[in-house]
Amino acid sequence: MSRRTPILVFALLLMSLCGSAMAAAPSRVEAAQLASRSFAGSRIGISPTRRINIYLPAGYDGGTQRLPVLYFLSNFFEDETAPFAAHDAKALLDTAIADGVIGPVILVTADFTTPLGGGWYVNSAATGNWEDFMVRELVPFIDARYRTLAGRDARGIAGDRMGGHGAIRFGMRHPDVFGAVYALHPIGAGPGVQTMSSRPDWTLLQTARTIDDLKAHGYAQIFASIYQAHLPNPARAPLFFDPPARREGERLLIDPALTERLAASFFLDRQVGRYAANLRRLNGLKLDWGRNDPVTDHIVSLQVFTHLLDEFGVPYEAEEYHGGWGDRTWGPTGRIVTDMLPFFRTHLRVAPADAR
User: Global pTM?
Assistant: First the structure.
């Protein structure tokens, strides 16, 4: 054995250990900010600096493989940190990837909140252009800065409740951007059995002096956010929307034109016929909902929504499960792990072996 042999063996061992360490680099959640141009016209004080969280799986650092990306839209009132801070999404993803529930994947969350809770993922003259932010800014931002498979077949979108509504809406309008959609208990699928105008406190909506005044009444806050998104009026301070109804004494007077405009813009079932061809382009579409949701409107409207998908020949999967309002979404046995991630494992394209 030559004098160089031990040195060579040591060098090879060191290289092997270094390679193993790089391959075993732990997962991490990175915080980032995007200076957006989509909120210059916002009338409600939306910051153009939008916060983002990016989950990068184990082995990303030091690796070369390009990865598929999941965009996750949180529920009403939840910002980009909620999946990680409230539901330990990092640990769930780590375990799911290690167990083969899904392959290595990047997951992105962003702050879509407004002073009233959320902007409903649409362009609005009152709240700003949330659709443009997602499609024209956020997706290109992620593709430019991370090692992604930058194409619709390797890009999925999912969401929880209000986020599920947004996931379906983006899938309808942008099948060139997102190839697969999973909506967890989406809301706003259709009118259900109770009229929208019967929900909010109309006296409060008519007398509020600031947006903060609405936070004393949950339905007034939620429905005002819907009106800001779908009936915006930047000249109508302080709430910046045209009300589809008004109270006069004991009577509630409905504005038929505004109510029709609201329904046509907001309810997902009204979009199916217009975007059926787009929905048929998706590689996969799935939605689910809990049958014990205390708001019966959600259940009824989702059942009708799936029948409309059938009517227009849109392929999809749907499941009504035993559960309530978001109580089976997260956790080691929640539907994100048992259903959503396996769905994307099947419907997202990964890099071929020779491209890794």
Answer: 0.90
